Amino acid sequence: MNWEPLLLTLKLALTTTLVLLLVSLPLAAWLSKSRSPLKSVVDTLVSMPLVLPPTVIGFYFLIAFSPSNAFGQWLDEHLGIQLVFSFPGLVLASVLYSLPFMVHPIQAGLRSLPPSLAEASYILGKDRLTTFFRVLLPNIRPALFTGLVLSFAHTVGEFGVVLMIGGSIPGVSRVASIAIYEEVETMNYAAAHTYSLILFGLSFAILLSVNLINGGILKRYWR
């Protein structure tokens, strides 16, 4: 069996999850506290991947980043960046597609904290950045963990977005979900079964860990 699609899937999921964490922390913090009129618009845009078909998102990514399009051509000519049919393109598309799976748990966790927690930190002389990282985040570790594992699992299972923006280039964009589809097309059910079984086991383990922590069984170890 060719392990390359599985390794590429794990690489994509890890990279996407790390980028999502960096993007989602300030975004979730703003959404949880902001009273701006733009909050509803931003919240809606973040949630759009939950309701849009992956192929729709992938299609617009393909159009936007294609070198035949003005924006894609500008990226290629001025920055030397080609996002279509490339691993960086997969990462960007995956980050945007999995954004709600990271933002929403962190946003809900921050909303659940009493305002007095941050206020006490400010009274003790801590600035906003220190309060956020040293006081607020440690108190939402289960929510943070949920966002991390759900984003990772969601990226592992991506198909439509990845296929539209990356195609099926071995070593570049042929992730496990695409490999399964192609093996089924060629009636190589043994290989498709192996890929599917590995992804099933991985996804089950990830979601089980979330349920155990959120159910309280492992909370005493997550402190």
UniProtKB/TrEMBL annotation:
Gene3D superfamilies (alphabetical): MetI-like
| Keyword set, alphabetical order | Cell membrane, Membrane, Molybdenum, Transmembrane, Transmembrane helix, Transport
Family label: Belongs to the binding-protein-dependent transport system permease family. CysTW subfamily.
Where's it mainly located? membrane
Its localization reads: Cell membrane
Quote a single Gene Ontology cellular component term. plasma membrane
GO molecular function: any one? Answer: molybdate ion transmembrane transporter activity
What is the protein's name according to its record?
A: Molybdenum transport system permease
Q: Where are the transmembrane segments?
A: 12-32, 44-63, 83-103, 189-213
Q: What does this protein do?
A: Part of the binding-protein-dependent transport system for molybdenum; probably responsible for the translocation of the substrate across the membrane.
Source organism's superkingdom? Bacteria
Membrane topology qualifier: Multi-pass membrane protein
| Segment forming the signal sequence | none
Domain ABC transmembrane type-1 spans what residues?
A: 6-208
